[in-house]
Amino acid sequence: MASQTPPNKKNRDEGEDSTGKAKRGHLCFDAAFETGNLGRVDLVGEFEYDLFLRPDTCNPRYRFWFNFTVDNVKQDQRVIFNIVNINKSRNLFKDGMTPLVKSTSRPKWQRLLRCEVFYYKSPVHQNHYVLSFAFGFDKEDEVYQFALTFPYSYSKMQAYLNALELKFPETFERSSLGMSIQNRKLELVTFDEVKKPDKVDQKNVIHMVVILARIHPGESPSSYVVQGLIEFLAAATQPIAKALREHVVFKIVPMLNPDGVFLGNNRCNVVGHDLNRSWNRLSQYTHPTLSAVMKMLKEYDNSSCYQVDFVIDIHAHSSLTGTFIYGSTYDNVYRYERHLVFPKLFATKCEDFCQEHMMFNADDRKSGTARRNFVEALSDNVNTYTLEVSMCGYYLNGTNILTQYTEDGYMRIGRNLARTFLEYYRFTNILPIPPMEELRPRKGRPRTHRPRARSKTRSEVRVRPKTTRAYAPISYTDLSICYDSATSDEGSPVRYHMYHGHAGAYGGLRMRPHAHQDQFSLSNIQAARFSNLDFTSDYRLKVPKLKTPATAGDQKMPPIEMLTVPPKPHLTIIDFNQLTRGGLEEATAAGGRTIDREKEKIRRHTFKSSSRKA
Q: Into which family does the record put it (predicted)?
């Protein structure tokens, strides 16, 4: 499909060469392939295109899935694509999901950069939500393909099952439940290695698990989840898979709506019916695949040999992140508690499980879904769930980091689903619990890791000599650290050792000075005389020189009044909210005048005391 241009001769001549082919740079769009979806393209600018999605066959309501190719591009050509008729306004494009792209030489799907994708209301398009993304074509001879999420076609499923049937013929059983309206096979995959008992009673019934997927064609991630589950169960040497196959029968329907998948629909089959709203009004003519599945379920549910434990319908969610489960509510409390066991076990196996999105209800509007209809159609032993996986990604636990899903990420969910079945059947004593030797982790590294080379000569470990411990001095904020006079040995601060005694000026603690101190040490002065002074400032006590030097025998402690005591620090509070021009200088000058007044008071007090003493 070539891009549409105004129907005049000038544009036709400019857009075509002599052979009638479009000139290089005039993009050619194509969706005429399996799972393809694109209805119309309008060229609205030199480098801008409006894309219209084709609605589901016989149902114009659903328009969300897209999958198309673009070729005939120029190198380094940049364009803007606007998908203008998406019917679902609430979707994951608001949360950071971006379309996928791949090319001929780069067959691996990659997501577009988030900075180049925009989802917004457009006044040009009647205030409808528009998905716009910019893209630059870097190679001319490439065919580029764009899709909503990872496509999974009916032909790909057939090729995968053919290869698996050849690889695991002993563990893998493939059959057909019926045909679709357009005569496509409804595939059924069975894993059954359970030993059939000679006498069947209630204690030795055969347990069964039924998995359904891809009832909505646009939810292709569900097919990758089923592929991961099938690969895990088919592995002949996998001990978990072997234990499950020997005790439980698995029935897997990988694609319930093959016609819708082939046509590239979003939710409906070829006649425009949403199959996940049609379980309560089945018709052999309009819903042949659902009728075949319901017939199989009722046969096994009414059988005395089999007990259907689970029916899990796998979907992909377009507006929520993470992996979560929808269940049902029951009036019977014991049945409801048993119904909650499997989701709790599954949450412990998946790091991407989102409990906030998990829901259990009995909504009448959902009566046509498999989850709600099987509650009434099947026996009370059957637990029916809807397993939802996001089309975009999941948030890491406790963070706002969005991790995008890949094909392997979806298949990992299928493998975790198989591990959850193992835990459940061990919990219900259907599977034997292995001995403790098998449960304990193996010591050392696996054989795949090479051990690091170690030196043959090992150095001996020397024993640490026993030494006496000297405790570091402890300083408390309520105790002042005072310094010696200028005649001390090294000018170091006097260190005090604490010991308990009677209550004194320091709250029950007395101080014992260090051994080497001279006669001018402050520890020789009574603490009561200095209880009203503050020594927290970084000053040294200055001792004035005497006019007549005293002899060694006449050395006495100078009077306390002669010691110059540093002033108490004063804090001037400045309110910056009330400062005006020049106010900061006035406030600073006021603080300086306060300190000068305090120094003058101390100087006068010292002078009066000296005069009185004389």
A: Belongs to the peptidase M14 family.
Q: Are the C-beta atoms of 371 and 327 separated by less than 8 Å?
A: yes
Which CA distances in Å does 610 have to 186, 560, 562, 590? 115, 10, 7, 31
Residues 293 and 421 grouped into a single domain:
yes
157 in Cβ contact with 163 (< 8 Å): no
Q: What is the C-alpha to C-alpha distance for residues 90 and 96, in angstroms, rounded to an integer? A: 13
Q: How many independent structural domains does the chain possess?
A: 2
Query: What are the pLDDT digits (tens) for 550-606?
Result: 444 444 555 544 444 555 554 455 454 554 555 555 555 555 666 667 667 666 666
Of the listed 34, 388, 438, 586, which one is catalytic? 388
Residues 163 and 54 reside in one and the same domain: no
What are the tens digits of pLDDT across the range 225-251?
999 999 999 998 889 999 999 999 999
Domain span at 85: 28-147
CA–CA gap between residue 162 and residue 166 (Å, rounded): 7
Domain boundary among 88, 121, 147: 147
Active site residue 586: no
Is 401:395 a contact under the CB 8 Å cutoff? yes
Q: Which residue has the tokens 């064609």?
A: 217
Half-sphere exposure (CA, 13 Å, Cβ side) for 138? 6
Taking only the tens place, the pLDDT of each residue in 310-346 is 999 999 999 999 999 999 999 899 999 999 999 999 9
Element (H, E) at 48: strand 48-52
Q: Where are the beta strands (DSSP E) in 270-421?
A: 306-317, 323-328, 359-361, 383-390, 393-395, 402-404
**pLDDT (tens digit, 9 = 90+) per residue, 448-505?**
555 555 555 555 666 666 666 665 554 444 444 444 444 444 444 444 444 444 444 4
